[in-house]
């Protein structure tokens, strides 16, 4: 199916604004649009520029705090499209511990969507999350995949998930009341090169890759796994995520309609460790930390709706994406060991 994308609907000099561009997904999105030949991209993040995970040459890159209204007005000046991927976020270790920080991301979306509207932007994208789904439906590792209607009745992940649900509602009402075209994707775990791999915000594939590398490097062939390892997840490779964002944003059928953007290839954390052992060529003694944050028991993405509307779903096999991610983290690990900067892996 030939879905509309930025490349087929925008002029190459239309201004694209990307919030959170110093981070993982928005950094990849910035690169994607740059590679497509867009000449006016404004990338924004609150982090100082040297700490950005990727810096794309030729892109206007601004360090600004987007929880501040005036900064959002400045960020959206002249924008044709606005992508909001800025949020205070991390893996379970972060979102279970720092609920206030997660909730405060509501300020970013609240000011960004209003600023986008005032600037006359044609389309606005919001990155929601599978954490917006009712946690009661995720208590079993064999839980059925989550479909879009499972967010209500609402019982989202405390903090992070509720912020996402409220921000989704903003997007829906800006379309209903003011006719600004909004797009809402509920991402399920995203992984890949240039993602956080150390420092406390990393997610399972990156954290476990790093632990395998550390074990090999130190010669201490043991690994600590959070929880009992039976918890299940699906993981979406970054390239699929970026492609999905572009298609969802430009699909008129999906205006103001939350949609899953995730892989439907379910895997347990134990199986993920086995895959990594295979990739690394090592066997580790496993220890389980049952007191560590582990999130819901099981979560998968039901892709019926995205298949129906776009005729597509994220489809990079997990092993293929994990091999690339592992190789990248290994390279970063060695770079850091050599005393060179690695922004996505700060201790
Ligand atoms: P990330 O942490 O790598 O990137 C987020 C960026 O937002 C960071 O660089 C951070 O500095 C920036 N930011 C935070 N507060 C800001 C502020 N006040 N002003 C300006 N910038 C600010 O995270 P990511 O994985 O790239 O996630 C991007 C989006 O996707 C987030 O909204 C996240 O909630 C959502 N999401 C991600 C995943 C995933 O698996 N990575 C899953 C579900 C949803």
Describe the structure.
There is one protein chain. With 347 residues, this protein is of the alpha/beta class. It contains 12 helices and 13 strands. The protein has helices at residues 6-9, 24-35, 69-76, 92-95, 99-104, 106-118, 160-178, 204-218, 238-249, 269-280, 304-310, 318-337; strands spanning 16-19, 41-45, 60-63, 81-84, 123-129, 181-187, 190-191, 222-226, 232-234, 236-237, 259-261, 266-268, 285-289. α8 crosses α12 (318-337). The longest helix is centred in the C-terminal third of the chain and has 20 residues, at 318-337. It starts with 5 loop residues before the first helix and ends in a 10-residue tail after the last helix. The mean pLDDT is 95. The chain binds nicotinamide-adenine-dinucleotide. Nicotinamide-adenine-dinucleotide is lined by residues 20, 22-26, 45-47, 65-67, 85-89, 108, 127, 129, 187, 189-190, 196, 203.
Give a brief rundown of this model.
With 347 residues, this protein is α/β, with parallel strands linked by helices.
Q: Which structural class fits the helix and strand makeup?
A: alpha/beta
Give the spatial strand order of the biggest sheet: 3-2-1-4-5-6-11
Major sheet description = 7 strands, parallel
Round the mean pLDDT to the nearest integer and report it.
95
Q: In DSSP terms, counting alpha (H) and pi (I) runs of 4 or more, how many helices?
A: 12
Low-confidence stretches: none
Give the termini separation: 44 Å
Helix content: 25-40%
